[in-house]
Amino acid sequence: MATIIDINEEKALEVKDFEFTYASADAPSIKKLNMPIAKNSITALIGPSGCGKTTLLRSFNRIHDLYPGNKYEGEILFKDRNILTAQEDLINLRIQIGMIFQKPTAFPMSIYDNVAYGLRLQGIKNKTELNDRVEKALKSAAIWKEVKDRLKHDANGLSGGQQQRLCIARAIAVEPEVLLFDEPTSALDPISTAGIEELIVELKERVSIIIVTHNMQQAARVSDYTGFMYLGELIELGRTEELFVTPKEKLTEEYITGKFG
Amino acid sequence: MTHTKKRIILNNIVMILSTLSAVIGIGFLFWILSVLVINGIDALSMTIFTEEGAPPGYEESGLKHALIGQLMIVGVATFVGVPLGILAGTYLSEYGQKSKLSETIRDISDIMMSAPSIVIGAFVYAVVVAPMGHFSGWAGSIALTIIMLPIILRTTDDMLQLVPSTLREAAFALSAPKYKVITQVVYCGAKAGILTGILLGVARVAGETAPLLFTSFNDNFLNTDMNEPVASLTVTMYNYATSPYEDWQKLGWAAAFILSMFILSLNIIGRLFIMNKKGK
């Protein structure tokens, strides 16, 4: 019954018959979900609280694995392999698929060390290379001008919006292919939000982006594709302008017109 | 009488009672401190730090033996107890989490924290001193380590759990393996709290007398061999203060003063760390 459009472009990820069950739950939180994610574009996931959109997002880098007992079924294809297998090298996967969280997660260290963190994990020790890549990442995240004179300062001294851009810089420094955004602006003021949205749109030239958002205007503003989820199912996936103007599913229409949710 | 009036009167009664209780409580603290300071400063002199114990009546007597002995016993206990406590706390918070084993360890260390220290002294006497056949500084350090361990373990556990889980997730999402997440990110976020736990743990054992009576015993002269009985400020203070000789009693006051100032400053530094952390 779901309406899922075919994506003719190259795909970054493909979800096939995916089910996810939390350790403490009897029933799956995501049920038989199928969804293509287009490469170098922005896919937004919308839906009411508890619909499973964040759960789905957190499956793409298998961050659920930190908590024992969570169960995946089905497939998520990335570069022609199913990343849900036990053999999957999670460290390697998380280098290629980065994540930005709802609240800024600046580490309790300097601004420089925050951005260099992922690079150092990859074994980059050369000072010049580190400096270059930190600068490049901070520039891409549009925060270089604000922090270039205080790279050695504690990152927790930055404002919320700056911290979130720092986290984006930290994530793109390792040059991932996919970036997952989990409601990245819900803790920020409107001006910082606009800055982050602009940045996300710029980033899609280099990475494929999936963004979970509670804010439908945000989905409409930034994304190329939008998926509407409800009760653990993908109800509709379409090009953003079509989904918001001429939704194919009744549920989608009711949600975007504010009848529930 | 109107309802409002009644409420105002009741409010005033409760306020006066609670203020009074607080004043009484704090009053005792200042009373103790002022008696200590008056008698302690009076007893202080340079020879306290340069001379060892002497028979009553000798001019040249001091607490050098007890100060050095105290540092050795507490130093060894800290050296063993701190890494052990931090590692155990790390296990509870980061690996065991809510498992049955870690919940049991948490319960047991909470009980251990309130165990009478004299019981721990008696235990170390039975398993270390009696088989060795004599008192020793090592035995004293072991007793203090046992007392310190649950304090450091539980504060480390609590402080690590205060680090938001999103911070851990963010480090994992950047492809960090677990041991690096813990040592580079989680410890970094909890370092002020862990340091506070260490300071409070050291302060707690530095003031212990009962377990040392059974273990390191005492020596009126300087002894740096941890295999033999070693003097400590607390036991020396107990012996001198209860002696009938006035000059020994004076040394007892000096010991009490030095010990209290040491523990007070550890506590204040520890609390400053906590305040600093909250301020951020």
Question: How would the blueprint of this fold be written?
Answer:
The complex is a heterodimer of chains A (261) and B (280).
Chain A: E1 3-4, E2 11-21, E3 30-38, E4 42-46, H1 53-60, E5 71-78, E6 81-82, H2 90-96, E7 97-100, H3 111-121, H4 127-140, H5 144-147, H6 160-173, E8 178-182, H7 190-203, E9 208-212, H8 216-222, E10 225-230, E11 233-239, H9 240-245, H10 250-256
Parallel strand pairs in A: 1-11, 4-9, 4-10, 7-8, 8-9
Antiparallel strand pairs in A: 2-3, 2-5, 5-6, 10-11
Helix pairs in contact in A: 3-4, 3-6, 4-6, 6-7
Chain B: H1 3-43, H2 46-50, H3 64-96, H4 100-113, H5 117-132, H6 137-162, H7 165-173, H8 178-206, H9 210-213, H10 233-241, H11 246-279
Number of helices of chain B: 11
Proportion of strand residues of chain A:
15-25%
Rg of chain B, nearest Å: 23 Å
Tell me the number of strands of chain A: 11
Strand content of chain B: under 5%
Structural class of chain B: mainly alpha
Features:
heterodimer; A: 261 residues; alpha/beta; Rossmann fold; seven-stranded mixed beta sheet; 10 helices; 25% strand; globular; B: 280 residues; mainly alpha; MetI-like fold; 2 domains; 11 helices; 79% helix
Would you kindly provide a written description of the structure presented here, covering whatever features stand out?
- The complex is a heterodimer of chains A (261) and B (280).
- Chain A contains ten helices and eleven strands.
- Chain A has 261 residues and is of the alpha/beta class.
- Chain A has one domain (3-256): 3-Layer(aba) Sandwich (Rossmann fold).
- In chain A, the strands form two sheets. In chain A, strands 1-11-10-4-9-8-7 form a seven-stranded mixed beta sheet, with helices on both faces. Chain A has a four-stranded antiparallel beta sheet with strand order 3-2-5-6, with helices on one face.
- In chain A, strand 5 and strand 6 (81-82) form a beta hairpin.
- In chain A, helix 4 crosses helix 6.
- The two termini of chain A are 20 Å apart.
- Chain B is mostly helical and 280 residues long.
- Chain B has two domains: 3-43; 64-279, MetI-like (MetI-like fold, Orthogonal Bundle).
- Chain B contains eleven helices and no strands.
- In chain B, helix 1 (3-43) packs across helix 11 (246-279) and helix 3 runs parallel beside helix 6 (137-162).
- Chain B is globular, with a radius of gyration of 23 Å.
- The model of chain B has no long low-confidence stretch (mean pLDDT 92).
- The A-B interface holds A 61, 63, 66, 91-92, 94-95, 98-99, 101-103, 105, 107-109, 117-118, 121-122, 156, 167, 170-171, 174 and B 164, 166-177, 180, 184-185, 188-189, 280.
